[in-house]
Specification:
By secondary structure, the chain is of the alpha+beta class. It has one domain. The protein has 6 helices and 7 strands, in the order H-E-E-E-E-H-H-H-H-E-E-E-H. Strand 3 and strand 4 form a beta hairpin. Helix 2 packs parallel to helix 5 and helix 3 runs antiparallel to helix 5. The longest helix has 20 residues.
Length: 222
């Protein structure tokens, strides 16, 4: 392969923006720690790259999503943990549809609790994520389990999804909703994905910022 063709093949894929995107697939997942330019760790986990497939079967756009790390010292530790668990479960149940015998993700999650000798109840989980000593290794193990199972069901021919992406409150970053449902199967008859007033407000704010920059005088005109 020529250098030119190789460079063209490695060209940056356009990022998915605000909206509900159909015909998406999981490309890959990783729970490896990422760092900032100064070498400090980024407080996020379960990095998941989702791509949109066009009519020719090619991925033309993608987006990497992830979840904020759970801070055991925060009063919101359990709520943040449960939000991540709830959203990852939605995704897992699409890739591993529950059967009469149960859910593969549920079995894997319960197996992890058994390994850590944690009882299968909310009180035990609240206690687990409320202490830094137990929260960090638990969330690391849970993230590793998630990435491993996701990668087994990823690829261009994997299950097609609808993906909802929103603008964060700073009106700068595109991400999955912080708390709500963000995926469903592409073949679902009636979608339940939509945007609430706050999400539309953040999008409007982002549009205004973009228009301000677009209408700013160029260097040549100053």
């Amino acid at each position: 392969m020529s250098l030119l063709n190789k460079l063209k093949g490695n060209a940056r894929v356009e990022e998915l923006g605000f909206g509900i995107h159909d015909n998406c697939v999981i490309i890959s997942a990783s729970n490896e720690v990422k760092t900032k330019k100064d070498g400090s760790p980024i407080n996020r986990s379960c990095y998941t790259t989702i791509g949109q497939v066009n009519a020719k079967g090619k991925i033309t756009k993608n987006k990497e999503i992830s979840w904020f790390g759970v801070d055991a010292t925060s009063d919101m530790a359990y709520d943040n943990f449960f939000t991540q668990l709830d959203q990852t479960t939605e995704l897992m149940d699409i890739l591993y549809p529950p059967t009469a015998e149960g859910s593969a993700w549920d079995k894997a999650f319960n197996g992890l609790l058994d390994e850590l000798e944690v009882e299968h109840n909310e009180a035990a989980l609240r206690l687990l994520v409320s202490k830094t000593k137990t929260c960090k290794p638990f969330m690391k193990a849970l993230g590793d389990l998630y990435a491993d199972m996701i990668n087994k069901k990823s690829g261009i021919d994997s299950t097609k999804l609808k993906l909802k992406l929103v603008i964060d409150k700073s009106a700068v970053y595109v991400q999955q909703p912080r708390y709500d449902k963000f995926v469903e199967p592409s073949d679902i008859e009636k979608t339940t994905l939509g945007f609430n007033d706050l999400e539309l407000e953040y999008k409007s704010k982002a549009d205004k910022i973009a228009n301000t920059f677009a209408n700013a005088p160029s260097v040549e005109s100053l």
